[in-house]
Each structure stands twice: as C-alpha cells, then as structure tokens.
Amino acid sequence: MNILNLFKVSINAVANNKMRSFLSMLGIIIGVAAVIIMMAIGQGSKESIRKELSTMGTNLLTIRPGADMRGGVRQDPSAMQTLKMADYQRIVAEKKYVTYVSPEVTSGGQVIYGNNNTNTTVYGESPDYLDIKQWVVEEGDCFTEEDVHKAAKVAVVGKTIVTELFNGADPIGKTIRFKSIPMRIIGVLKSKGYNSWGMDQDNVIIAPYTTVMKRINAQTYFSSIVCSAITEELSDAAIEELTQILRENHKLKGEAVDDFTIRSQAEMMETMSTTMDTVTLILVVAAAFSLLVAGIGIMNIMLVSVTERTKEIGLRMAVGATGAVISLQFLIESVVISVTGGLLGILVGFSVSEFVVPMVGMPSSVPAWSIYVSFLVCVVIGILFGYIPAQKAANMDPIEAIRHE
Amino acid sequence: MAEEKDSRKVVIELQDVKRYFQVGSETVKALRGVSFKIYEGEFVTIQGTSGSGKSTLLNQLGCLDTPTSGEYILDGTPVRRMSKNQRAKLRNRKIGFVFQNYNLLAKTTAVENVELPLMYNNKYNAKQRREAAIKALQAVGLGDRLEHKSNQMSGGQMQRVAIARALVNNPAVLLADEATGNLDTHTSFEMLVLFQELYKKGHTIIFVTHNPEIAEYASRNINLRDGKIREDTINTNIKSAAEALAALPKPQDD
Asked: In chain A, which residues have their Cβ closer than 8 Å to the Cβ of B106?
C-alpha cells in the first residue's frame, strides 16, 4: 500500500471517531497553544523592554561608584562615595566622546503641597539630564546652570505629582515641600507612562543636583553620573575616555582596580534580554511538559484503538498486509492526530497571542520559528508515542486477530 | 480418491502435513498427517466436528500458519519455509478469504471494502482497483449497491461483498470459512447458488463447514476427525442450490 493510501485510511479512521480523536487532540491543542502563547509573551516583553530602553537613549552611559559588583561581594560603604564634584568637573572639561553629563543624587520621601502629600523620589541632576534621558518639559521651563550654581530651590515635576498634589490644576509657580525644603515648581514633564517593570515614570521630581546634595541630603558625593556618548557606536570609546579620566582623578595606577563602574545602555539591554530569555525558557519548559502528557494521552488512545480494531488488523493481514504496513498505518494515524491537534493548537495559540493577550495589556509577539518548531514537535510526538501502539498492531497473529470478538 | 483426474492442474497439495501446538507441557496434535490434492475447478467441502482439526487445516490452506512437518504446495509454491512477509504476499495474490462474520470494514462502502486486497498490491493503481472491484461486485449481483456502506446492508449483502472481496484478486483458490454460518436458511441457499455459479465458471472453492447438508451441493467432500482424513469422496450427484432455493417456502415478509 502506498503512503498516500495509508494517509487516506488513517484520516478516515480519525474522522470515523470524531469525538475520541478530538479528545485525544485536546492535550496537544492546549500544549501547543500554551507553548506559543508563552513564547509570544516572552518575545513581546523582550521587544517592549528593548524599545523602552532605546527610547531612553541607546547611547546612555551610567557611572556608578564602587567596583564591578557582579560577583556579589559586599563592599565597604566608603567605596560607594567615590564619585565627587571634581570628577564631574573634569569630565565636563575634558570630554570628547561624551555630549551631555549629569551628576545624579537622589532622595526618596514624602512631598507635600497644602493638604496633599505623596511619596516620590527627587532626582538631583544637571540641566543636561533631560537631553540625556530625552525627556521633554511640557509646561514651564527647566532649571538652568545658574540655578545649579545657586542651589536654587526649584523643581521640574512629573504628571503624577501634578495629579496627586494639585488634582490636575496648574502647578507652575506653586511651592511644594520635600523633607521640609520648599521648592518652587518651574516646569512640568511630558507624561511617559509606566515602564515595563511597572514603575511610574511620571512620579518624579527633578531638581538641581546641588540643591539635593546640599539642602536635602547634605552629602558631598554623587550616587551616580549619567552621560550620553555622541552616538551608540562611540559608546565604547566614551567608556574608555571616562575610565581614563576617573582613574587619573582617583589616582589609580597600574593594577589598581577601578573604584567605579561604567555601564552602557547596550549592556543593560543585553542583561534584560538574558533575564527575559531565562523567564521565557522556564515558562516554555512548563508548557512543554503538557505536550509530553498530551503525547502519553495519544499513546493511550492509540492502544485502545488498536485493541478495538484487532479484527480489522486481522483482516488486513489475511488479505496481504505485512506487519510493516500495518505498523505504518497506525503510526500515520497517530501522527495525523498529533499534527491536526498541533495545527489547531497553533491556530488557538496564535489567535490568543494576537488578540486576547494584548487586550489584557500584556505585550505579545509570536515568533515565526515557534510555529515551525511546534509543528515539528507534533510530528515527533506522533511518531514517538505512536510507535508502541503501532508495534502492538504489527505483532498481532492474523489467525487470532481475525477471530477476535 | 480422485486419481483419474490427474491430467488437471493441481492447485493445492498437502504432503503429510502435521501441526502440533505446545500448550504448557502438553503437545496438542491438531493435524496428525494430512495429505490430499485439490485440482483446479473443484468445489470441495471440508467437514468435521469441532476439535477435528478443521480450523487448523484452514489456517494451513490459507497460509496463515505453517506446518510443523510435511509440506504444503499452493499453486506450485512450497509454503512451509516461507517468512511471514512472503506468506502475506502469497495470500494477497493467490487466496480469497470469505469469513463467517463477513469482516467488512465498518463505515466503509461496498466498493472500498472490495478494493482492500488490491490496496496491498502495488501493481494496481487507483483506477484499476476500482474497475476490478466493480467487476467483482457485479459478479456477485451487487452492481447496483457499490456505494452502500457496510452498516446499511443486510447479512446476505454483506456476505456477497465479502465474496466479491475474495474474488477481486483473481485468486487460485477461494477459501470459505463457515460462509453461511451466520445466515438464515433462505439467504444461505442464495449464497450456495452463488458458490455453485462460481464453481461453474471454473473457480476452485474450498468450503469449510460443520453442516453436512452443504456437502450435497459440492463436487467433493473431505471429512476430518481427530486431525486425520476420515473420508474423501467425490460427489457425482451434485444437487442444484437454485432448485432447493425455489423449493423453500418464501420468507413471510415477501
């Protein structure tokens, strides 16, 4: 019997038992759909984080105090105070591959206006900060170098602050208080919404770094320095340049380890991608286990089917079917079940990923290869779990099979 | 014995065929040495009570099993040393089976059922298969029921489909196992009429049955007892099944 006829026979057998076939397909449908949805969410999240990070500026460089901590070793607290005013001034004076520089000092706490208050973070920055982050002042103005010089008590606020403290009324010119320091609002930032970690990017107050350093925190060091390289391609050159300046400034010679760490945005993206990949992998593995269970389900149904059709097998053998042909017939049948289930699963998974997942506000993007892989996996499942039932059929004795009641 | 017919072609030859089964520590001797020749165009009934070795002999004749000793030659081919796959092919080309309970494929049309043996023969393409199946169904009087499904047919019709399926590969021998066992008297005689027609057309038929009456309509009768041939007689006075059928009282719903 040729393969085409075997396919016809198998499809007929599956079609003659619609309910049972569908139930045995159900496991595969759910398994494949789950794998595809997980992959789509993983891929979608990765893409959205990537997009977000790149809107923050792919040429962003962050200098943090302390040596590279990726090993997880605890460091002396004094090691976190290595970035000083002198470093900032020297970078500004000598930068070639860096366009904008802003020292950063932050302070978290309660901000008050009249009867209202909310928890927020005050970022002490230089006016360059908005250019580095590509943020835009929607109303009013940003503070100036002059304000920085005077440690002026002025601030630019995000939309959430406006909503929380002013119920949406115009806040320009109003004075808010943060840790008992009054600050006059001179500008409002354009809304940026939530980022993919679920952080409200509009819940910020930006003030001159000198103000936060001297008036609020009373500290002499920066928590970090953010810069932007001229272009993303020049990031490495900029890192090189900044490293040299800081090492000289910190009098680090020869083998001495850097007491600061410079990370580029590209590196951050890499880290995020790796993390997302790991999370996706875990989810997909969990979903793949359901495919294994589905395969066992198919094997179970096929074993029942073989037993039930003992007489048919006996007849086919009596009229000339060899064991190999019988085995192939049942193998194809199980592949037909698993592949049909797989195709339905792809359809369900694709529809859910494309239409349902975005409705609940999750990012989703079906990678094309996940569809090919799912299809292949179904063929493999069909063969793998169809093998034992097919062998059982092929090894029947025609004499006993044909008289089986 | 049939010595005087030596000039005719031998289709089946059994040479001292023995078949023993090992059941636990005991040896069951199902066939204790059976020898006979069946010539082309004979209509032979094989009779015997249960336990006579009738089924074992049928399995041998149908190449479903091989002898413990002795030799079976089917249409010139010695069967004993053949592999399973070789015997499957031999069955496909040389034997037409008719089973007691029809054994049609469920939810399948008459013509598809008849095509089945040819599906396992690569020499036939789809068109040739269909043509051969239609021809076989016409030969058993079902030319107008080609597309009827097996569950839409009466017992007699199903058995006719089964006979057509046995004829479709132009076998050297038609092997019927209690082919009328599940049918009422009227339909049984209809089947006998059909078998007699096929006999007259020159088909070689072996009809295994426990019903002694059927022997009267065949050309030869082999009687088994305890794994040996008790009697092997030529029937010179073959009764006409058509006449017997006409003499039967009509079924009441007619």
From this structure: 16, 312
Q: What is the largest CA-CA distance in chain B?
A: 57
Q: What residue type is A356 in one-letter code? A: V
User: Which pLDDT tens digit goes with each residue over B135-170?
Assistant: 999 999 898 989 999 888 988 899 999 999 999 999
Nearest-CA distance from B74 to chain A in Å?
Answer: 15
Do A320 and B92 count as a contact with CB atoms less than 8 A apart? yes
B179 located within any domain: yes
| A367–B contact, CB cutoff 8 A | no
B190-209 confidence digits (pLDDT tens): 999 999 999 999 999 999 99
- The answer as to whether B253 is a domain residue is no
Structural domain total, chain B: 1
Residue B77: which domain range? 3-247
Interface confidence, given as ipTM, is: 0.91
What SS3 class is residue A125? strand
CATH of the domain at B158: 3.40.50.300
Model pLDDT for residues A48-92, shown as the tens digit of each residue: 877 777 776 778 888 988 876 555 556 666 667 888 888 899 998
**A318–B91 C-beta distance less than 8 A:** yes
Residue spans of alpha helices (H) in chain B? 54-61, 84-94, 110-119, 126-139, 155-167, 185-200, 241-247
Structure tokens at B225: 């007892």
Chain B neighbors of A319, CB-CB under 8 A: 91-92, 97, 116-117, 120, 165
Task: Report yes or no on B254 lying in a domain.
Answer: no
Residue B252, in any domain of the structure: no
**How far apart (Å, rounded) are the C-alpha atoms in residues A255 and A239?**
18
Residue B103 and residue A315: Cβ atoms within 8 Å? yes
Task: State the pTM of this model.
Answer: 0.73
